[in-house]
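Q: What would this complex look like in 3D?
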Amino acid sequence: MSRVTMTYREACRQAIREAMLRDERVFLMGEDVGAYGGCFAVSKGLLDEFGPSRIRDTPLSESGFVGAGIGAAIEGMRPIVEIMTVNFSLLALDQIMNNAATLRHMSGGQLGVPLVIRMATGAGRQLAAQHSHSLEGWYAHIPGLTVLAPGVVEDARAMLWPALQDPDPVLIFENAALYNSEAEIDDPPPVVDIRSAAVRRHGSDVTLITYGGSLHKTIAAAEQLASEDIDAEVVDLRVLRPLDDATIMASVANTHRVVVVDEGWRTGSLAAEITTRIVEQAFWDLDGPVARVCSAEVPIPYAKHLEDAALPDVDKIVHAVRRTLGEGA
Amino acid sequence: MREFRMPSLGADMEEGTIVEWLVQPGDRVQRGAIVAVVETEKSDLDIEVFDDGVVDELVVPVGRKVPVGTVLALLLPPDAAPVAGPVKTPAAAPVAVVEPRPLAVHAEEPRPHVISPMIRRLAEDLHVDLTEVHPTDAFGRVHRDDVERAAEHRAAPPPAASVAHRAHRASPRARRLARERDIDLSGLSGTGPDGNVVGADVLGAPERLPVNVATAAKPERLLKRRRAIGALMTKSWQTIPQYHLRQRISMEMALTWLDHHNAEAAAESRILPAALLMRAVAVAASRSEDVNGFWVDDHFEPAEHVNLGVAVALRDGGLLTPSLANADELTLPALMAELRHLVARARTGHLRASDTTGATISTTNLGDGGVDEVTGVIFPPQVAIVGFGAVRDEPWVTDGALVVHRVVHATLAADHRVSDGRVGGLFLASIDQLLQEPEAL
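A: Here is my prediction, written as structure tokens for the whole assembly.
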């Protein structure tokens, strides 16, 4: 086994390549994925390698091409549908929720939809409110879907294949701020499951629960806290639905204090769901209220300073931890 | 006799439930007084009595639903003497019974004031002791004004009380731990946010003197002991460059001598092999300066005498290492007697201060448990520990012949900052040599 250094973007591309090479039923479909190479350049070069029948450019019609993907999946293909950002996925929400997520149940098990939908999510690049929201928590609400949020290069590389093996629809959220991040990973990539969370840093004083684009901020916060003698454990959810309660509760039982970091809005959020589960399952292990660091409840602003102010960052996480531990803020 | 009936409290009211009686038999009531609380489909309503009189009997108990017009209570005329003898109250329906509220009119004795949750909260916020608030309401209800007035007139502000109140807040985990350990949370000071009691405060708290000391006091005591051992051993492992030596020692001579000695000795003066080993260690240590003493402030301070530390396993877990002072000067029988007492004191938790300080070198003997050998971890600031396993029959070569000897594996862990392997080897050889001439010990 060797090690290779690659970007998150390259990891996504290599994952798609691997899937295309391993399974001829796999194809990629979406806006600008072919000639343009993908809005975030994830599919650059794939058209040349696999040709237009497997790397398919679609019209600007999310509902149309997601629906086509669902049909292809039902008929035995293994489509990877790319939606430019989660904001635009709302145009396909009817297909995702009313068809992809429900057909297995409504057909009494006769129709499965082994479809993978990839989309970018998250803010931080001054793309303003219509391109910057983190709505993955909404999808995590829907029974019938598996929702993944690779937060590290390794998961970006490794999660697509098991997602394609799932007999039901899987949504993969790639935080756009991560595409340029780089890491050394195993080659060939490790086999990962798409059911469990990962503890990215072990600690004994407080559990920081996060995923996706907030993971690196949270790890940075944990490192800063370490210099203050606060030993933080970082749990990377990786899988937003179904949530890995066991890993979360085991960590809480160890640290007794929790801060949830979620780029989504606070109200009705994934952070709220996690907090509730902790209260339901680990109440008697808690030494204090669960704290949350979420995005400000505004449409994500365009102006840099306002956008920064609206998002979770290292300072906010550190402050929340200090408050939780009663160290003052 | 007048009848007090369930009134119609609205055109569409057909029945009502008595939630609370505010009067008792014998109470004198005036027309218009509130005597009961009735629950209708819409809300709880206070109901007034329509006649002056003395309550004779409450016919309908709390909790029972009755149609409009049902007789609820019987009243005697106002000039009637208060009822004597047993009061007539109805058997309560199986519903939570609420304390009757006092009726100010002719109330015969003080009754508990009626205090709503909101008022309790207000009193808590204003640090008002509700038992000292006198309601101005005719029915004994404490109102917001009463509490606020009490707060204004309070003699001295009670910041201390406020702090005490806050300190009683405890986290869910603290509550669980306290429950499991039977600890009174109110006695704890909190180290969490806002001074709240958190789990660590409970774990560090002395336990309430339990009925069964042995079981209830166990976890915390053991936890502390475990932590202490852990801290010391971690320090040893992290700061002392330790080297380890092992030597097989034939116990044939020593045990043969010991068997003879014990055969002739009274039961109480018999000597255990362990004592013989310790005596050998003590004498050898007194001759080998570089293993007996302390590492202090980056240099070695040899000790004049040998205070021999003895690792004693405790029956409920953990270990203690009391020491035999001046072990090098104790005769073997004296050492045996001291050892006996020391182990007994350690195991019953009655060690003396002098037992627990000043070991200059330690021994650990796990032969009882049957292990072949034990490599000890040095107790800082000491610089060496000698370990002994079980004495076993083993093959032994002597004068070119293979024979069976009783053999013990002796190990040495020593501080490389103080001595080198050669010194340690000589030390173990010295122990060996002493054991070959047991009568000299």
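A: To summarize the key features: Residues 8-22 of chain A form the longest helix (15 residues). The CA atoms of residues 101 and 143 of chain A lie 7 Å apart.
Q: Very helpful, thank you.
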